[in-house]
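A reminder from the course coordinator: this example appears on the midterm review sheet, so study it carefully.

Given structure:
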């Protein structure tokens, strides 16, 4: 594979991976404007985020079998078109109920991009490169949290929150054009793959019962929910508790995102010396410590705005180290049903994330305590799942720099 072709593959796959996060990050600064425009509360607006996460979770289970039956590109085309239509629906929404519904449909479309990009990484790259490739996808994905909230903050303040969804529709159209013109089909349609309920459930079960899959996918999903705790809580914590403007919130969000992004890129260097499993271990232990300090400081009122930003930054660094490795380890055992495996991995992440988002939106608290507490519980529980689950792995496909081996 030439360097130019490799670059374009990473760019397109990264853009697909970034579509769902962009759909979240860009409208977060507009929570207050949306609430005022639709005559509702910011807590009710937060439910539109929850509905999006639920749609992402449910939709990934739908696309997994479709990707293995029809190839990667046809289901992706359909999902992107659905996303464009739903984005237009969000633009014209005149009630919070309609916005919540349109966000759910938008998520169903967006998750086609998420599942397809993960499956195509498994199709196009050797297992030994997968963790590094996922780290590079995070680098492309980093465009979203770095610029989307800042742009969204200025748009909602100056031009109205509705324009955000029009821009999202245009972005998805550009991605669709790039996919049609430049992204190769990485998996031939399989006419023998049955879409009947029985065989589909059998495929899911075949993946689910694999110890390496359920250990690392659950561990990753639970640990990753710390990120969703931050995303769901941050508009209230920063704009209502600390009284920052929507524009300033966008800059804070971009700053904090560098923790997640930078650590995911640091993973490429660490992979030269350590196994993925060792990196996951260290990241979770550090995350437990930082989240505990964050919680104690929030309860005691020691942190203030700067201290809160610092603690969130440190926790997000740990999530950024953990995420590429748990994903790569979960998908490593699968070659022929990578679509199902990637859809289940994503579904676990979004199911846990949506539960966290709904819980925080219902638990009204004008402080950072719910965020910090969720981060601590998530990191501790993820570590328990890791320690417990890996005892059941009899033959592990390891992911490390330069080798992919079955360890007995």
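Designed residues:
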């Amino acid at each position: 594979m030439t360097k130019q072709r490799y670059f374009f593959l990473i760019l397109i796959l990264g853009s697909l991976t970034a579509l769902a996060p962009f759909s979240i990050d860009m409208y977060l600064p507009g929570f207050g404007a949306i609430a005022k425009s639709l005559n509702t509360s910011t807590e009710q607006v937060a439910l539109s985020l929850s509905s999006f996460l639920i749609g992402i979770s449910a939709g990934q289970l739908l696309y997994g079998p479709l990707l293995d039956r029809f190839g990667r590109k046809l289901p992706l085309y359909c999902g992107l078109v659905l996303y464009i239509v739903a984005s237009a629906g969000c633009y014209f929404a005149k009630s919070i109920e309609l916005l919540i519904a349109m966000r759910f449909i938008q998520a169903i479309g967006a998750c086609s991009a998420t599942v397809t990009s993960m499956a195509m990484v498994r199709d196009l790259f050797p297992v030994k490169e997968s963790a590094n490739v996922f780290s590079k996808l995070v680098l492309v994905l980093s465009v979203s949290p770095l610029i989307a909230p800042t742009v969204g903050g200025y748009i909602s303040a100056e031009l109205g929150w509705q324009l955000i969804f029009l821009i999202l529709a245009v972005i998805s159209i550009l991605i669709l054009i790039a996919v049609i013109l430049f992204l190769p089909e990485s998996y031939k349609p399989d006419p023998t793959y049955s879409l009947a309920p029985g065989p589909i459930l059998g495929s899911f079960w075949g993946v689910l019962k694999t110890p390496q899959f359920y250990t690392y996918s659950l561990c990753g999903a639970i640990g990753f929910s710390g990120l969703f705790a931050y995303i769901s809580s941050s508009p209230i914590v920063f704009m209502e508790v600390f009284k920052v403007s929507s524009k300033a919130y966008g800059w804070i969000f971009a700053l904090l995102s560098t923790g997640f992004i930078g650590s995911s890129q640091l993973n490429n260097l660490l992979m030269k010396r350590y196994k993925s499993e060792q990196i996951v271990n260290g990241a979770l232990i550090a995350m437990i410590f930082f989240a505990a300090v964050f919680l104690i400081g929030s309860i005691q009122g020691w942190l203030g705005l700067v201290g809160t930003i610092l603690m969130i930054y440190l926790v997000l660094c740990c999530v950024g180290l953990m995420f590429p490795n748990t994903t790569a380890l979960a998908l490593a055992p699968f070659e022929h049903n990578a679509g199902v495996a990637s859809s289940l991995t994503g579904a676990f992440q979004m199911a846990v994330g949506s539960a966290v988002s709904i819980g925080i939106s219902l638990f009204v608290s004008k402080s950072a305590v719910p965020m910090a507490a969720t981060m601590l519980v998530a990191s501790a529980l993820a570590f328990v799942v890791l320690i417990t689950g890996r005892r059941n792995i009899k033959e592990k496909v390891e992911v490390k720099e330069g080798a992919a081996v079955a360890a007995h």
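The two ends are 32 Å apart (CA to CA). The chain has one domain: 9-182+194-393.
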